[in-house]
Amino acid sequence: MISKYLAPLEQVDAVREAHLAFLEGLEAQNLVVTAGRQDPPNGGVVVLNVEDEARAWEIMAGDPYVVQNLAEYTATGWVPARGALKDYPKA
């Protein structure tokens, strides 16, 4: 999931702790592989370990950034073929 901020960075950052806590909860469920802010900070990337795009949308609907209309996501499917994530356990 690739996000684009819809509000000034100051507004996004005011909710950042809640967003990070949300991601931490997903990590505890083995749903987040990795995540981080884009550079420059126009949005972020969340790599999910889910079975399909519908599940990804369902999960990210609970992101505080989405709930407060501070960001929107685009789903981009990806299957790692090389590197550190090549053999990552599938959902």
TrEMBL record:
Transmembrane segments: none
Limits of the YCII-related domain: 9-74
Listed Gene3D superfamilies: Dimeric alpha+beta barrel
Pfam entry (one): YCII
Family to which this protein belongs: Belongs to the YciI family.
PANTHER family, per the entry: GSR2449 PROTEIN, YCII-RELATED DOMAIN-CONTAINING PROTEIN
Name listed for the protein in its UniProt record: Uncharacterized protein YciI
Organism classification: Bacteria, Bacillati, Actinomycetota, Actinomycetes, Micromonosporales
